[in-house]
Amino acid sequence: MRTGKHKTVYFDNAASSWPKPERVYRAMDACMRNAGGNPGRSGHRLSLQAARIIFETRESLAELFGVADSSRIILTSNATESLNLAIKGILKTGDHVITTGFEHNSVMRPLRFLEKESKLSLSCIGPSHKEPLDLPLLEKAITAKTKLIVSMHGSNVSGDIFPIAQIAGIAKRHGIVFLVDASQTAGSLPIDLTKLGVDLCAFTGHKALLGPQGTGGLYIREGIVLRALKQGGTGSRSESEEHPEFLPDKYESGTPNTVGIAGLGAGVKYILSTGVRNIGEKKAWLRAYLIKKLQDIDGMRIYGNPASAGLAVVSFTVPEVNSSTIARNLSDKYSIMTRPGLHCAPLAHRTIRTFPEGTLRISLGIFNTTREINYFIRCLKNTIKQAE
Ligand SMILES: Cc1ncc(COP(=O)(O)O)c(C=O)c1O
């Protein structure tokens, strides 16, 4: 896409991926035109077609996440809804929760909300000198009241990857429920929820899963029962005024976002056919290329651990130049889309000591190229020079 004299360079995939694979646009258009009935409600052809689209998307997500029973994947409107359902659905007055020092506000705000209502106590575990999470400290923080551990899988600020397999092991040993926020990793890294032994996993549809905004989901392991956030029509058990107890209906009520779910299904199918490992490798390669180029710039400070494996999410600061000024200049003058500031994760910025100014974040997607990175580096150098 071209705006003004420059081709648009989109480096904000951690906020929302763009562009989407062609098949995502096509699936949404076809759904709107050919499957316009209300899924699971009416029983006519268009209603059945809509229901089939939703079933197929659920099956594709289950395949991607190594889940045998796709009814354990609850479709929601985003990761925020999934996290609220998991957190508010499992916790009771007096429970203790352990989380990391990097969580997004969609984890921290529901937790702080419950804490304020004096329903829970909270421990936030920071990094060790080498890793984004001090695992021994996390285990030490466990008390008899600890009900839930919440950890992100990948940071939307530093790109750090969290040791969810080890945390799952600790949670299992102590009989604690483990919730993963896979918003930044679903579609970028292989995730086998059954092998990992994760109890709950929230994900969003519009980032690396390549679906549209307004889609997401929550995996709920068999044996975990949550209090639902809402009750209503499901198209099932219509004779009863009691909400059904079976999945996915227990946690899904009201007419769903079928068009969005069609797009999400197409995005996940694209990932399954390309291979999540291949996608992860391409992004890792682009990340390494970007970091190497950034490291050549005088005074550049890159956060996270550039030497270890990480997501293609790179945050940096340049001395004396505000990240918002750089981002505005990159967008207005060169048509390069980046994200400055706190990235809805003030806790993470406190942890890496970039609060309140924040950082400039570059987040790469599968359709980005080294040519775009070279162009960005030239424009960034010009911007810094002009600001000095
Ligand atoms: C780590 C993390 N968790 C949760 C979210 C929330 O996702 P959504 O806005 O789709 O609910 C985001 C979005 O930026 C994120 O990066």
Number of domains: 2
Let me know the average pLDDT.
96
Secondary structural class: alpha/beta
* Unreliable residue runs: none
Task: Summarize the helices and strands and which ones pair or pack.
Blueprint: E1 2-3, E2 6-7, E3 9-10, H1 22-34, H2 45-64, E4 73-76, H3 79-90, E5 95-100, H4 105-116, E6 120-125, H5 135-140, E7 146-152, H6 164-174, E8 177-181, H7 193-196, E9 200-204, E10 216-220, H8 258-274, H9 276-295, E11 301-302, E12 313-317, H10 323-334, E13 336-337, E14 339-341, H11 346-351, E15 359-363, H12 370-387
Parallel strand pairs: 3-13, 5-6, 5-7, 7-8, 8-9
Antiparallel strand pairs: 1-2, 4-10, 9-10, 11-12, 12-15, 14-15
Helix pairs in contact: 1-8, 2-8, 3-4, 9-12, 10-12
Notes on the protein architecture:
Helix content is 39%, strand content 16%. The protein is an alpha/beta fold and 388 residues long. It folds into 2 domains: 22-274, Aspartate Aminotransferase, domain 2, CATH 3.40.640.10; 275-387, Aspartate Aminotransferase, domain 1 (Alpha-Beta Complex). α6 (164-174) links the parallel β7 and β8 (177-181). α2 (45-64) runs parallel beside α8 (258-274), α3 runs parallel beside α4 and α10 (323-334) packs across α12 (370-387). The protein is globular and about 70 Å long.
